[in-house]
Amino acid sequence: MTADLSTAPDLSTAPGALTAAADTAPSVVQTIDWLAVAPPTLTALAALLVLVADLFLPGHRKRLLGHGTLIALAAALALLIPLRAGDRATFCVTTGAQACSYTADHFALVIQALVLGGAFLTALLSLDDTRKIPAGEYWFLLLASAAGAALLPASRDLATLVVALEVASLPAFALVGIKRGDRRSSEAALKFFLSSVVATAVMLLGVSFVYATTGTLHLTDIAAHLDDVPPELDTLAKTGVVLTLVGFAFKTAAAPFHFWVPDTYVGAPLPIAAYLSVVGKAVGFSGLILVTVIAFPSYADVWGPAVAVLAALTMTVGNVAALRQNAGRARSAVRLLAWSSVAQAGYLLVPIAAAAYSSDEQIGSTVAYALMYAVVNLGAFGVAALVARTKPGNRIADYRGLYATRPLAALALGFFLLCLAGLPPGIIGLFAKVTVFSAAVDAGLGWLALVMAVNVVIALYYYLQWTAILFRDPESTGAATRTPASEPPHRFRTPAPLTTAIVLTAVVGVLLSGAPQVVLRFAAVTLF
After folding, report:
1. What is the mean predicted confidence (pLDDT) over 353-377?
2. Which residues of 187-196 are buried (b: 16+ CB within 10 A; e: fewer)?
3. 8-state DSSP, 37
4. What is the pTM of this model?
């Protein structure tokens, strides 16, 4: 058989033709904006560095790991400053519609500041409280969880969202149960782990249904595809939306998926309970906002009523349970803060529900409320950690007469509780509640606004009751136990990092109460 050479390609020109074709073909290589991803990346690298350094540092030098953690978190916070324009995106697809997996917009930057700031204050609270726990593992797990939490608000596809959520959650399980030999800590970690695993499984099932319906994982592309779902796939799409929301409801501690919160907060080290109450909530609510407002706007008629009912149920369950706390029960102070955090989650859900009925601008109210809550709740846990050093039972009754022994701590805790209640001088708490209330009214959710008003009144009782206890006369201990006049009363020396954390939160709370419009105006520009 002879070949027909007349039809053979001209090999002399083939290389040039291939080069021209390569120049015109779209590149499939994604570029990386390293500055945009710098805050979570630096935090993750610091976690690895701490883990390696722990292998070589002698026992008496382990404290350096805590200082290194503080420096790393402060540096990650500083890296947010060059990104303040909120106009960066990376890991973008290069063919077809422009969709990115990571976006450093104003919403992401504000939540990242909240997360990294919360982790920084948690590290301050923990600096002198790692004597009975493995320090290296503790700081590694804290940084690893903070890295995942900082990645989540910038995630713009479901795969990255789920991975970031689990990176934030998995180290938190170990942090809750890190007190070796403590049955309560192990039980808390097990409950937290099991509930979170169930939530993740449900959420992944929902994500798979959404992907099967739309054929994409990018949030903006999902929204476009859900606008025109074939009738035969509509039920599958709605099921995927609902299951995804149920998964995030677990993460946000929304009722009836809140059962793990009280025991987890009581069993965890106090700084970790503070971390979960603020950073854990920020992670859950960020994910919920992203999937509802960006990915599922076409199904607002499905998730809007569901989130509204969850908000009403969550704030009611949290406040009623907090109201029933016995002041003499062991660790009743932490339990009250735990149930209070459940109630606050209900308030945070209100603007998300309102966004389904009006506009995405309602989300700014959630961001503003989250900023207020983060500052004052971390401060309240800081004072609780201070009291626990002398009274490990941490009962509410242990705070009686705190003003007589530690006047500044009592004033700070009283201020934090009034902020949570929404009463002067906690003006920032009042403004945040009014903003959330207005979001419900503007969206036509009058019944939800009424439920919120009733719950705010219920919460006033237990917040004011605890505040009053701080300024009552200490209980008389009898003549047999009085300290002789020749012996001055023992005064416990407060660790400097713990004092710094309480002072920082108090100062920020006071400044925000003096100028609450700063938070509201700042939150108003955090929309996508």
Report:
1. 86
2. bbbbbbbebb
3. T
4. 0.89
